[in-house]
Amino acid sequence: MVLKISDECICCGACEPECPNDAISQGDPTFVIDPAKCTECKGHFDEPQCVPVCPVDCIHKG
């Protein structure tokens, strides 16, 4: 299961540069995670890198 960004996203952009797979991009109206690219950072890190940098805690398993 991949991560998703909820409607609470404030479009701050903090998550985008943290993704090692380039799976996060600006959508309309919020940022989105491409499920084909998201690995939840497995193989790179012990935990998803986007989750701890989100100031509004809007990134969750989908």
From TrEMBL:
What InterPro entries does the entry give? 4Fe4S_Fe-S-bd, 4Fe4S_Fe_S_CS, YfhL-like
Q: Which domain of life is it from?
A: Bacteria
Q: Which UniProt keywords apply?
A: 4Fe-4S, Electron transport, Iron, Iron-sulfur, Metal-binding, Transport
Q: Does the keyword Transport apply?
A: yes
Provide a Gene Ontology MF annotation, just one.
metal ion binding
Domain named 4Fe-4S ferredoxin-type: residues? 1-29, 31-62
- Matching Pfam families: Fer4
| Cofactor(s) the protein needs | [4Fe-4S] cluster
What is the protein named?
YfhL family 4Fe-4S dicluster ferredoxin
Q: Which organism is it from?
A: Phaeovibrio sulfidiphilus
